[in-house]
Design goal:
Blueprint: E1 17-24, H1 40-56, E2 66-73, H2 80-94, E3 104-111, E4 114-117, H3 121-125, E5 130-136, E6 141-147, H4 153-189
Parallel strand pairs: 1-2
Antiparallel strand pairs: 3-4, 3-5, 5-6
Helix pairs in contact: 1-2
Amino acid sequence: PPQMRGPRSKALPDRALVNCQYSMATFSTGERKRRPHGDRKSSEMTLHLKQTFEAAILTELYPRSQIDIYVQILQADGGNYCACVNAATLAVIDAGIPMRDYVCASSAGFVEDTALADLSYVEEASGGPQAALALLPTSGQIALLQMDSRLHEDHLEAIIEAASGACRAVHAVLDRVVRDHVQEVTALLGD
């Protein structure tokens, strides 16, 4: 990670600053967005990304540094936050920045007495209760849990279980892809 850019007063003496920016392309949804970033939803997603990756990245190894994570949604098909977390996890690993664990995210919702994981845009738009879960799968720690509407306490465990099961499935895929990439790179280097 590079040294802090901008005012030096923002530099943290004991850890790195995680700088995130979330935006959506103007053509990412059916209707054109006027402002791709800077609206309330983008600011909220930016804050969620920052909190999630501050929990996972070993920031104490890089004092007075800055780690930038910029994500842009090109096509909004549902689960935007979750897709951003999973893509940013791969980018951070590829950049060689040490993390406590992978960060895997999935959305879940409750539709007609059934807990569903990885909601599509249509399922999200149905208006039922939904949650986004960012999980550190090896330790089982929750980096972020966001509920979008009210949910009865009896259904909470089913939604969290569905989302955490999907996160573990995403972890298996991400881990396999990272290991294959490392083997390919080391074979190319001849080590």
